[in-house]
Structures are given as structure tokens and as C-alpha cells.
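pasting for ref. prot 1 ->
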Amino acid sequence: MKKLYKGIFAGIILATLSSSSFAESGNDPLVGKWKTIDDRTGYSRADVEISKKPDGTYEGIIVATRNVPGSEKMGICSNCPGNLKNKPFLGLPFIWGFKQNPDNPREFNHGRVLDPIGGKVYKGKARISASGRHLNLRGYVGVSVIGRSVTWIKY
């Protein structure tokens, strides 16, 4: 009987801890490590770590890169603009300036997205799936209709 009570007690503790960490991650659903998926090849090209800055905006930096089979792994952002030119991909700001939509906490707007291969910076917006495991990121020029969307997977 004591084992049964200990098992129930342990289950309650575990459930409490799980729900509290879920609640904490629910406050910042964008924060964490994401695996990028190239929309043209279907391969994962990089891992991006997204954090929330003190000003309330979100920034993602590249923490790992992979090459597409049959191509060389690129290490330097030779086409990047301004002070990002010729910087290593690792540690490179990839997305920045995203703000959480106060009306929908799963939406993030007013950001910028760097295409490290082409070196262009686009306007960006993002939306997290209901499960919190997928991020749909859209980079665009001018209006959102003219752009590209990619889906990332949360680690």
C-alpha cells in the first residue's frame, strides 16, 4: 500500500513539474533551438537558437550548419550586407526584430530575415503551430504576398 501511495505522490510531483515547465515555455513559444528546413531541397541547412532580447524583440543566431548532399558546406557569409559581410555563419544573426502580436501570442511580426546564401535581408513574420513544434517563417519584399515561406522544427 505504501508503494502505491509513493507512486501516486511521485506521479503528482512529476505532473506538477511538467505543467510548470510547459507554462514557462508557453510564455515564450519562440525561444529555443529550431532546425531550419530548406523549402527548395527539403534538407536541414542549419540550427538557429532564438532568444528574447531585453527590449522584447526576438533574435535568432545560427548555431550549427549542414551542407546539402552534393554541395560544399559554406562557412562564411560572403554575400551578406554591411557589417555581416564575411562573417562566419556560426554566430551570425539570421532573424531579428520580431515582436509578438499582443492579440495572438503565436504570431510574430515586424522582423527581418537574412538569406545568408544570397545575402539579402527581407521583412519577416512568423507563426507557431498550435502544438508549438513548427514555426512557419515568411520572408518577403514589400507585401507578404511576394515572398517565401519555410517551416522550422523545434528541438
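and prot 2 ->
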Amino acid sequence: MSHRHLFSRLALVAGIALSAAASAHDYKAGDLQVGHPWARPTVPGQPSGGAYLSIENKGKTADKLVSVSSPAAKSSEIHTMSMDGNVMKMREVGSIDIKPSEKIAMQPGNGYHIMLIGLSQPLKLGDKIPLTLTFEKAGKLEVSIYVEDKTAGKDAKGAKDGMEHMHH
């Protein structure tokens, strides 16, 4: 094998390894695919935070997310949020049914999310927090929640500057 051919093979292997690392935010348990668990940073003294992710059932049978837990919080709960007129209503749900071919997208603003209650320390940008998802059929799945600053169309600096201007 020539050096050039060997180098191109190594480059291909490195490229595959890099693309696998880039999708390390995805996890699998049985037929369930869990995508990009993340949470927003919290401020010191904030007792709880929300975590978000997606769950897709790629199988032919339904499953159910029955519990969540994290050592970063005293308790973790599955919540749903909805708007009733101008009133935001949040309540705990015991579980989430995931039908075959269904994708549940937990995101800020509406729908399901995970509440981390009684945080042991603030969630800081760049942190990775362990979370265990327990499914009725697929069993336990360990994931990492990445603490990211996902603001609505603004970077962290822009949002912060806007707040500072409002207070002058």
C-alpha cells in the first residue's frame, strides 16, 4: 500500500470518528433514539432548572418514559406546560407514552420538559450533567445534559446587553 493510499485511508477513518463524535449528543435504548439533551444555565440561588431533549420511537411497539433522575438535583420530574389564554400552566406528568414512529420533542415554551428540582449547584455554561431516563420496555438510559445558552435568535452577549439597556 502506498503512503498516499494509506494517508487517504487514515483521513477517512479520522473523518468517520469525528462525525461520530459530533453526534455524541444522541443516545439509543432499544428502538428509542434520544437526541441532544440540553439545559439553559441557571443563576446562583435559582432552585430548579429545565432540561430538554427529543425521544423518537423507531420501533413497531409503543414504549413509555416512566421516570427521570439526576444526581445534580434532589428530584427530577417530567412536566408538561401549556398556555391557557395568557396563563402558563405547568404540571407534573407521571410518564410519557411514545407510540411507534412518534417523536417527542421537549423544548422551551410549550409541551414536555424535565424539571431538575433542588439543584446542588447552578447549571453553568459548558457543564455536562448526568441524567438517567427510565423506559418501561427499553430500560434505563444514561445521558449527559449539556448546559448551553439557547436564546431566541440572540447570542448571550446580545441578550445581556439588551437587558442592561432596559435598566438605565
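The chain has one domain: 26-151.
Helices lie at 3-22, 156-166.
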